[in-house]
Amino acid sequence: MDWITVGYLMWLTGVILVSPRRPPEWRELVALNVSASALILAASRHRDRLMRPLRITYDWYPAWGIAFVFEELRNLMHLLVPRWFDEFFLSIDVRLFRGFPSSFFERFYNRPLTELLIIGYFSFYVIPYLVCLPLYLRQDRRAFHETAAAIFISFIICLVLFLLLPTQGPRQFYGHFRRVPLEGYLVTWLEHRMMAVGGLVGGAFPSSHCAVAVAGLVQAWRHHAVVFRILLVLVPLLSVATVYGWYHYTVDVAAGWAVGVFAAWLAGRLYRSQGAVSTPDAV
């Protein structure tokens, strides 16, 4: 897992260094990536000698690190490809559904339904902890690290594809066709505020929300029946909400599901190949 994280950070650093479209703060980003990589490798090498707070911080970096690697891309969307792919992905949606799927859902808009679906969409922010925390508390080291790796790998794959296929999403690309505002209650208002402050323009394909949620779903199926049942409700709500709320094209959702399944499979293979076993006293 650590080598995958460091590999991504070094790959992104290389792209920043060679791209003619690197941002003015590129030196700071390079220094940050190199420093983060050095810290991760040092913590990995000396994990058993770390003080408990530092060990917990290291164990959980795949969960809280999502925010770091996500935020870093804010000014890097056109490092590799100086164009948007919305027309291509929208054309697939139109061919499949003979229209705009997000517009289709407007006929069903009502506050309770919107709030329910946005709760599902909002669950993206808690799913990594919902899946990983029970495994951590029951001191199942292999299951915890495999699950954290699956979630983080799914997100890293999405970030790489964001740079290769930058896509704005329906809100930005054809949001002017929107006829009905998306209105709910508290969670809908909170999600609107978060999107206004922290939304990433260009990170639509694939849906990282779906990728992370599906990776968590697969891992919960493997390791925690109760959480799996909860996610069987949340993940479909989240997936529908991505199109209902004009966040994604349907092809983004399908790609996100594929990424999540692949990441869970890869994490399982990696940890099984390492011969990792559950060691309660090591977590």
Approximately how much beta-strand content do the residues carry?
under 5%
Query: Mean of residue pLDDT?
Result: 90
- Gyration radius, to the nearest Å? 19 Å
The 3D shape can be described as: globular
Major sheet attributes = none
Q: What would your notes on this structure say?
A:
This protein has 283 residues and is mostly helical. It has 2 domains: 1-59; 82-282, no CATH class. The protein has helices at 2-18, 26-45, 52-59, 61-72, 86-97, 101-104, 111-122, 127-137, 141-164, 170-174, 186-198, 208-223, 225-244, 250-273. Mean pLDDT is 90; it is low at 276-283.
Structural features:
mainly alpha, 283 residues, 70% helix
How would you concisely characterize the structure shown here?
It is built from 14 helices and no strands. The protein has 283 residues and is an all-alpha fold.
